[in-house]
Each structure stands twice: as C-alpha cells, then as structure tokens.
Design a protein that fits this description.
The protein is mainly alpha-helical and about 180 residues long. It has one domain. The protein has 6 helices and no strands. The relative contact order is 0.16.
Length: about 180
C-alpha cells in the first residue's frame, strides 16, 4: 500500500470515528433529556405529596388517614427516585455526550485540517490516540435506549449538527469559489 493510500485509509477511519462520535454524543444528549424527565416526574410528585400529607396531618385529627396515605405514596416516589437516581444518570449522560463531542471535533479537525501536514507516523499516532479516547468513553457511557438513538439519528439526519460553513463548502466549486 502506498503512502497516499495509507493517508486515505487514515482519513476514512477518522471520518468513521467522527460519525460514531456524532451518533454517540447525540444519543447521550437524548438520554440526558430522558433522565431529566424522570427526575422531574418522580421528584415533583414526591415533594408535593409530602407537603400535602404534612399539611393535612397537622390541619385536623380526622386528616390523619389521608395524610398517612399521601405520605406513603410520597415515600414510594422518593424511594424510586433514590433507587433509580435519574439526576446522577442525567449528569453521567451529559458528561459522556460532551466527551463524545470532543472526540467528534478532534476527529473532524484532524481529518480536515491537520492530516495533510502530518507525517505518516504522526497521522497513525493521532488516529491511535483518538481511538483510545473514544474507547475510554465507550467503557463508561450508559448504552442509549432505542428512543434516544432514534431521536439522535433524527437530529443528525435533519442537519441539526451541520455548520453553516459546511453547507457553504458543498455549494462551492472545487476551487472554493461560490457557484
């Protein structure tokens, strides 16, 4: 394989890394939305029911039974919230999304800006380091559910991650002049 062919292979692998990181990042951002939703869905009723139970129990002697029932329901919501820990998972997904996004940006910049100026050894090293960085995030990231992946793919396919300059590049001719 010639050096030119090797550089082409490295560029293609960097593009694959960029694509993988794009989908992984968007999936993790969607998972963080999922966990935020569960945090609010469980947390608000737990707090409201606990407050109503306390008020009802203190307001009258006859309100003790309804207050106890409300307190038990609030405890169930609180127990689920504590067990599932949606707020913790939300933060983990946001951190993983940010780390994947870093891989995506680094891969894109390496492919589009740096690769043509690197030696073969430096290009391979760059690819290796980037692969290790992505694998490290893969090891700690929570696998996205089907719905999060579907929303991520939809965001990507609708061009929500496109930069204006990239769409201008596609409209430009081979010499960079606008057509």
């Amino acid at each position: 394989m010639t050096e030119k062919e090797q550089f082409k292979e490295i560029a293609e692998e960097l593009k694959r890394q960029e694509e993988d990181a794009t989908y992984a990042s968007q999936s993790q951002f969607e998972m963080s939305k999922f966990w935020r939703w569960w945090h609010w869905l469980l947390g608000i009723p737990a707090a409201v029911l606990a407050a109503i139970a306390g008020f009802t129990g203190l307001a009258s002697v006859t309100g003790r039974v309804p207050a106890a029932i409300l307190a038990l329901i609030a405890a169930v919501f609180g127990g689920i919230l504590t067990t599932v820990e949606p707020n913790k998972r939300l933060k983990q997904c946001q951190a993983a999304a940010t780390a994947y996004n870093e891989v995506r940006v680094t891969a894109r910049q390496a492919r589009r800006v740096e690769l043509s100026t690197l030696s073969m050894e430096d290009a391979r090293s760059k690819l290796h380091d980037l692969t290790e960085q992505k694998l490290q995030v893969d090891r700690i990231a929570e696998p996205p559910n089907t719905y999060a992946f579907w929303r991520a793919r939809r965001n990507i396919e609708r061009g929500r991650l496109e930069h204006e300059v990239d769409s201008a590049d596609q409209e430009a001719g081979a010499d960079g002049q606008m057509g």
